UniProtKB/TrEMBL annotation:
InterPro entries: ASHA1/2-like_C, START-like_dom_sf. It comes from Paenibacillus tyrfis. Belongs to the AHA1 family. This is ATPase. Residues 22-165 form the Activator of Hsp90 ATPase homologue 1/2-like C-terminal domain.
Length: 169
């Protein structure tokens, strides 16, 4: 299993770091292809029922996470739609995108925080160090997503990524 993730909130920026026991090309592929994202994106007990990826600058990733775990109480059956609009892609090194809550048609949810996320993939002792920097419009916007349980969700999501990377090798 991979090393634990570090999470830091500084002002209006959320910084996530984790080292994955997989080559950089593989970790990058897991973020860039629908057939991989479907296996790991979302917290435990959730699945992607929709995953449309147009992986290029200006392209959009539109997805729906659905809770399929009856033990999650009121969340069971709940759908959460999201949309990423890619701004910059450097093969195996960097992905920059604007992250939105959305609806099934891809309309951005009003009043929900929409960070600019920069992910860097760096070779690190034969593994991959992934750093995600999410720049929120304000410290209050960052606090909103933290209060929604985003830290647990992203930790479980990246745990699932580590498991998927092992299965890919």
């Amino acid at each position: 299993m991979s090393n634990p993730m570090t999470i830091k909130a500084e002002g209006q920026e959320l910084i996530l770091e984790r080292v994955f026991h997989a080559p950089r090309e593989l970790v990058f592929k897991a973020f860039s292809q629908a057939e991989h994202l479907k296996h790991w994106w979302g917290p435990r007990g959730w699945t992607l029922t929709v995953c449309n990826v147009d992986f290029r600058p200006g392209g959009i990733w539109h997805y729906c996470m659905k809770c399929i775990d009856q033990n999650q109480g009121d969340f069971y059956g709940f759908e959460s739609w999201g949309k990423a609009v890619y701004q910059e892609i450097v093969e195996t090194e960097k992905i920059v995108y604007k992250d939105y809550f959305s609806d099934a048609e891809g309309n951005e949810a009003e009043g929900m925080p929409s960070p600019l996320i920069t992910m860097t993939f760096t070779e690190f002792e034969g593994k991959t160090k992934l750093v995600s920097r999410a720049q929120y419009p304000s410290a209050e916007a960052l606090k909103t997503v933290i209060d929604m349980g985003m830290e647990q969700g992203i930790t479980e999501t990246w745990d699932r990524l580590a498991e998927h990377l092992q299965a890919m090798q």
